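Aim 2 progress update. The chain analyzed this quarter is reproduced below.
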Amino acid sequence: MEIGFDLISDLHLLPGDVFNWENKATSLYCIVAGNVSHDLRTIAITLTHLSNFYQGVFYSLGTLEYENMTDIDTRTNDIIRVCNHIRNVAVLHQRVVIIDGVAILGCNGWYGIPDLKGSAIAAHLDDIHYLKKSIEKLQRHLDVTKILLVSNSVPRQELYYGEEPPGILAQYEPAIALMADTEHKVSNWAFGTYKKNVDTVINDINYVTNPYYKLNPYWAKRISIEV
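Predicted structure tokens:
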């Protein structure tokens, strides 16, 4: 059996921007790899719009959502509270969704941000710890045969293709969490932030991104997983 997910990311919408996804869905499910908007109402409107076209919309928070915010935890809780009232939308923050043997696991990652400081450093380390522990637990989950990882940040340095931000060597790349994938269940990693399209395989894992950045026309990137 094949399960499909439409990947979109990096919408960077401002209040009042029009984003129309009618007749563009190619799968039953949608992955949103962060950077929807810095405006809470715009996030709600956009995800509500997407929820009309999918049985499930799985949303990983991006760094844009925290722009000009000093309290990461409060902002996260605000977004989760809003999304809890939107049909078919699940925020991938310390939450695993399992569909027909595929576990969907996500986080922001906070990787690749120049001069990462303070609470962002703590959030970066917490996300990597969460990914590692969750992957570790899913190795023993009998109903899970594949794992789809989602992050707003680029998972590993080499996926910047020489365009990595300054200071990145001082940070832990999210892909370090893959050391917990002892049963090789992780098959795909969808991510955002990087401004170019990526679809490549490294160590049997398919890394994919599909940034919007006001590109026109813009279509979903379909991720197909065999279970």
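DSSP finds three helices and eleven strands in the chain. The longest strand covers residues 2-8. These observations will guide the mutagenesis experiments scheduled for the next reporting period.
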